[in-house]
Design brief:
The structure is a single chain. This protein has 170 residues and is mainly α. The chain folds into two domains: 3-128, no CATH class; 133-170. The chain is 86% helix and 0% strand. The chain contains five helices and no strands. It has helices at residues 3-27, 31-51, 56-77, 87-128, 133-169. α1 (3-27) packs antiparallel against α2. The longest helix is centred in the middle third of the chain and has 42 residues, at 87-128.
C-alpha cells in the first residue's frame, strides 16, 4: 500500500470516528469513548489539513473554519447529549479547537502576506537598480585619454626646459 493511500485511509477513518463514533458514544452513553473519539476525529484531520498542499490563504481559512466547526458547531449540535462529567472537558476541548485552529490559520495567512510583501519589496528594489557600466567604461576611457595628454604635456615641458638650458648654456 503506497503512502498516499495510507494517508487517505487514515484521514477517512479518523473523520468517520469523529463524525460517527463521537456522536454515537454520546447518544449511547459510552463515556469511556467520548474523549478518544473526539480527539481522533479532531486532531488527525487537523494535522492532515495543515500538511495539505494548497494556496496559503485558502489553507488558513480552511483551518480557521475547521476550528469553528469543531469548537462551536459540533458542541452546539450535541450539547444535550454531553454528560455532566464531561462538560468541563468539553469546554477545554472547545477552547483548544478554536484557539489552535485560529492560531494556526492566522499564522498561515500572516506568513503568506509577509511573503507577498517581501516579493513586492524586492520588485521595488529591482526597479531602482540602474545599469551604469556604459558610463563607467566611458569614464575609464576618458581617464586614459587624460593620462596620455598629461604625458604629452610633461614631455613638451621637458623639451622646452631642455631647449632653455641649452640656450642659456651657450
Amino acid at each position: 500500500m503506497n503512502k498516499s493511500l495510507k494517508i487517505k485511509l487514515a484521514l477517512s477513518l479518523s473523520i468517520l470516528i469523529g463524525l460517527v463514533g463521537f456522536p454515537a458514544s454520546l447518544i449511547f452513553r459510552f463515556d469511556f469513548f467520548i474523549f478518544p473519539t473526539l480527539f481522533i476525529g479532531f486532531f488527525f484531520p487537523f494535522l492532515m489539513l495543515l500538511e495539505y498542499k494548497t494556496e496559503r490563504v485558502l489553507k488558513g481559512l480552511f483551518v480557521i473554519l475547521y476550528g469553528i466547526f469543531w469548537g462551536i458547531g459540533i458542541p452546539k449540535v450535541f450539547e444535550q447529549y454531553i454528560p455532566e462529567s464531561f462538560e468541563q472537558n468539553m469546554e477545554i476541548f472547545k477552547n483548544l479547537a478554536v484557539f489552535a485552529c485560529s492560531g494556526a490559520g492566522g499564522s498561515i495567512i500572516a506568513s503568506h502576506s509577509e511573503e507577498q510583501y517581501k516579493k513586492e519589496e524586492k520588485l521595488v528594489v529591482e526597479e531602482i537598480v540602474v545599469d551604469k557600466t556604459q558610463k563607467i567604461e566611458t569614464l575609464i576611457s576618458s581617464v586614459e585619454d587624460l593620462k596620455k595628454t598629461t604625458v604629452r604635456i610633461h614631455v613638451a615641458y621637458g623639451v622646452v626646459l631642455f631647449i632653455g638650458f641649452v640656450v642659456l648654456a651657450i
